[in-house]
Write a structure and sequence with these properties.
Elements lengths: L5 E7 L12 E6 L5 H9 L17 E6 L3 E5 L10 H16 L6 E7 L6 H13 L3 E6 L6 H14 L8 E3 L8 H12 L2
Parallel strand pairs: 2-4, 2-5, 5-6, 6-7
Antiparallel strand pairs: 1-3, 3-4
This protein binds guanosine-5'-diphosphate.
GO molecular function, one term: metal ion binding
GO biological process, one term: division septum assembly
Family: Belongs to the TRAFAC class TrmE-Era-EngA-EngB-Septin-like GTPase superfamily. EngB GTPase family.
């Protein structure tokens, strides 16, 4: 899979815009500011295909990228931004619900959390969406570079416990800044899409 060959396909505001051409779809989710754009850019070795520092909460669209003509990378809008209106939150909920309503679209989930913190209630809700999808998913614990060595193991354990992850769900320590974890995430993706 040639990750350098990534192109933006479309921004979907509702289910009618979701591509349904049976190509594998790898879906990325995370709180606003967790570094989702940075993780995607690091993975694809691109500077700015996913916009870093986009206005939080202003993104109730699902962005689709096509990698090497073979795999969709699906960028779900970030959640948990305090200043978002109730109406906007409801819109987010409906959009995510409609995306997960058709789990045939999903090949692998990549749920991004902050390596420093205990997952939030919103993270736990997102975790439930992934679990209920019945599809494989991994948890990426981003901003690893902000942890002391001694904090890594206990923090990873706390993430696993708080999200009540099954044993087969990987927690990947990751730094979008330094590149740690990129290879492990890449292997999980390549394994899931059969490349
Ligand atoms: P998004 O809202 O989830 O897409 O988050 P962004 O990718 O825009 O990142 C939010 C902020 O976190 C930016 O200031 C990034 O530079 C920073 N950031 C993202 N990933 C990392 C990381 O691994 N380490 C550090 N130290 N900062 C990061």
């Amino acid at each position: 899979l040639n990750l350098q060959k990534a192109e933006f396909i479309r921004s979907a505001a509702s289910a009618a815009d979701f591509p349904r051409d049976m190509l594998p779809q790898v879906v990325f989710s995370g709180r606003s500011n967790v570094g989702k754009s940075s993780v995607i850019n690091k993975l694809l070795l691109r500077k700015n295909i996913a916009r870093v520092g986009a206005a939080p909460g202003k993104t109730t669209h699902i962005n689709y990228f096509l990698i090497d003509g073979k795999v969709y990378l699906v960028d779900l809008p970030g959640y948990g931004y305090a200043k978002v209106s109730m109406a906007e939150k409801a819109r987010w909920g409906r959009l995510i619900e409609s995306w997960f309503a058709d789990t045939s679209l999903m090949t692998l989930g990549v749920m991004i959390v902050d390596a420093r913190h205990k997952p939030t209630a919103d993270d736990c809700t997102m975790g439930e969406w992934f679990k209920q999808s019945g599809k494989p998913f991994v948890v990426v614990a981003n901003k690893l570079d902000k942890l002391k060595k001694s904090e890594i193991e206990p923090n990873m354990a706390r993430i696993r416990e708080t999200l009540e992850l099954a044993e087969n769900v990987k927690v990947i320590p990751f730094s979008a800044e330094k590149g740690d974890g990129r290879q492990e995430l890449l292997s999980a993706i390549l394994g899931a899409v059969g490349e």
